[in-house]
Each structure stands twice: as structure tokens, then as C-alpha cells.
User: What shape does this take?
Amino acid sequence: MGLLSGISEFFGLDIGASAIRLVELRGHGSVKTLVRYAYTPIDSKLTQSDAKADQAKVADVIKSLITEAQISTRNVAVGIPSKKVFTTVVDVDKLTPAELAKSIKFQADSLIPTPLASSKIDWAIIGDSPKDASKAELLLTSVPNEFIEQRLDMLEGIGLNVIAFEPDNLAMARSLTAPGTVLPELILSIGTISTDLVITMNDSARLTRSIPTGADAIVKSAMQNLGIEQKQAEEIVYKFGVDKTKLEGQVYDGIISTVEILVNEIDKSIKFFQSRYPNTKLDRIIMTGAASILPEFPLFIANKFGVNVEIGNSWRNISFAASKENELLSVSNYFGVAAGLAERIE
Assistant: This one.
């Protein structure tokens, strides 16, 4: 959802549930150079709140981080949390751009869950329909106006010039996949509060979902089932993960019901994708986010779906000094959205 075009200098800003992250790149083309990156933790109660006082606190944290990181440009591309975005793929008649715009406005009320008058919508043609070659396949996104305006006010209030809003999962898909990837890839970002899922094919998102199960739910499951405090639950979940062989399988038994809830939702998404594209098969699953580092979790997912799993690298399309490699890879799981926003071509 671009507001301006032709902007060459800007940074990507990810206002996550439990941290604020930013990335600034330089250059043009498919590989840009890292200029700077930064992050700071934030109380999720603030980022999830609509109260003006809480929004002001979030703005202060963003302002401090920008100053600390010595970001010189005021132009920013901002992520939109996936749970605030409705995304769907629909078949439409092959029309000129002007005719298509009219057609979508006419049909939008039946396609999106919020009234057209109170929503911002965006769309992109992604290819021929797999169901009917005479039609085109269109990726449609909508976001409530109120959320966009609230976020715009907050960021303009600290002197930023918002050049684009983009759904988190679309930004993440850009950073975690190689340009020109043809085969279907499922990206799974298991965050603190929720999990973002996106399946890409031929360089375009074909299915996106936000699943309301994340690392916190897995930790809470351990707390309840093992009768332990949160700090101890976090320690053992991140130490033993879904390894059945550790602590006589107690941690595995304590969290597996919540892990299975997440796995079942992933399974539904894969089946839905394959019902639309019956002649395709997932090539790989790319995991990122807080819970992707749980011991044995990637292997557990690989075995469940019979698909190769890799840990995503948010910096894969970005060049940087070799001396920075270890430092950047250690935080890669958390920068998919911010890096993808910075990689946008305006």
C-alpha cells in the first residue's frame, strides 16, 4: 500500500508484538547493502493496546531507537500486523487496469469482511487462474482505515514520513525467499503471540494466514501441565523443545497438545493450497521467529509434513561485511519483516 513512489532512501520499521525492529539498506537491484539495523524489546501490552497513552509510549520507543541507530532519513516503510489484514486470492476477468479497478470496487463488498467505505484495499495480478485460463488470479488485501490512520498519526507525530504500509507476511516473504523462486515454499514465522503463515509460488504470495498460537502459548502449556512458573517454563521449553528424550519426555508431553494445535492449522493451510493448485507440491518449509529455534522443532515439522525444513535467513538477499555474519545470523529469526520492508523497491 504505497503512498509515494520514486523514494530512494527509506528504512523498514517492524512494530512487533514484543520488539521494535528497523533496517536501513542502500543501493538498487535485487541485492542491497545493509547500512544499519536495530531493535529494542517492548511490553506487548503497549503494542497490543489502542489507548492513546499507550500508543504515545510506543511512539517514544520508536523515536529513541531511530535516534540511537542514527537513521538519517525520515522516510519509512511500515509493517501491518497480519491479524489486522485480510488477504485473499480470487479469480477475475482479464481487464485493463482501469476496468479492473472499477470491477474490484464493485465486487469488494462481497470479497472483504469489512465495509469498503471504512477499508483501504490493494491488489496485484499474480498470473493466470489455475482453474480457468481465461481469467486472471488476483491477490487482494484490505485493512481497516481506522488502524492505518491511527498508525499514520502516531508515526507522523514523531516526524516520520510514511511512504508505504505493507502486511508483515508479504514483507517477510520478500526477505526469506530468493528472487525468481518458482516452486511453492511455505514460510512459517512463529512469533510470541501468533504465527504468520504464507505460501509463495512464482515470486508471489498465494495464501496467507495469521494463526493465534505462538511461543507464549507453548510456554503457557508447559506452565499449566507441569505446574511450574513462567520463567522456569521458558527456560525448559527453549532448552528441550520437542525432544522426547529429555527429562523423560516431560517437556514434550507438557507442550505437545499446543504444538499439535499449530500443526493442525498448518495442515489445513497446506490442504487448502493444494486444493487450488492440485498439480503442485510444497518444495520446502522455511521456519523463522521466536519458536523456530526450539530444539527438534524443525525436524518435528519436517517429519509431520514430509517436506524439507530450513531455518530462514532474513539477510539472504542483502550484502554486508563478512565480519558481521555471526552477529547478523544470531538475530536473523527476528528480522524477516523489517528486512523485507527495507528491500521494497519504491
